[in-house]
């Protein structure tokens, strides 16, 4: 009997890496890339904060920005009530809903 040619019974090492590489590519496009894009959008929004913007904080407080100083944002949450918060605790801009009775 003849012996089989050497290496014919073992799959190529590169072929074993293809599923692993495919897995990392899928993870990158489904998880890592969208998270980076969201992070960049949030950073851009935080840099663009200005007095008069209505925002939502990480604690769920909705208020209007009265002043911005580096990393501190002064938030007006009621008449004559202002609180200082860190800029990073702002999670988004709040869309002002229309008041009842003003619908067209």
Summarize the structure in words.
The chain is α+β, with helices and mostly antiparallel strands and 104 residues long. It folds into two domains: 13-48; 50-99, SH3 type barrels (Roll), CATH 2.30.30. It contains one helix and five strands. It has one helix at residues 13-47; strands at 54-57, 62-69, 72-78, 81-86, 90-93. The chain has a five-stranded antiparallel beta sheet, with helices on one face. It is rod-shaped, with a radius of gyration of 27 Å. The mean pLDDT is 86.
Oligomeric form: single chain
Helix content: 25-40%
Whole-number average pLDDT?
A: 86
What is the overall silhouette? rod-shaped
Number of strands: 5
CATH architecture of the largest domain: Roll
Q: What structural class do helix, strand and pairing data support?
A: alpha+beta
Cα distance spanning the termini: 91 Å
Strand order of the largest sheet: 4-3-2-1-5
What is the fold's blueprint, element by element?
Layout: H1 13-47, E1 54-57, E2 62-69, E3 72-78, E4 81-86, E5 90-93
Antiparallel strand pairs: 1-2, 1-5, 2-3, 3-4
Please give a quick description of this structure.
With 104 residues, the chain is of the alpha+beta class.
Fill in the keyword field for this structure:
104 residues; alpha+beta; SH3 type barrels; 2 domains; five-stranded antiparallel beta sheet; 1 helix; 28% strand
């Amino acid at each position: 009997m003849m012996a089989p040619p050497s290496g014919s019974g073992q799959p190529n090492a590169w072929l074993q890496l293809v599923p692993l590489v495919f897995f990392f590519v899928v993870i990158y496009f489904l998880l890592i890339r969208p998270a980076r894009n969201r992070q960049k959008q949030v950073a851009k929004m935080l840099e663009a904060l200005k007095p008069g913007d209505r925002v939502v904080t990480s604690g769920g407080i909705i208020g209007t920005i009265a002043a911005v100083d580096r990393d501190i944002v002064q938030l007006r949450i009621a008449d004559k009530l202002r609180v200082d918060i860190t800029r990073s605790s702002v999670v988004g801009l709040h869309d002002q809903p229309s008041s009842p009775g003003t619908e067209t």
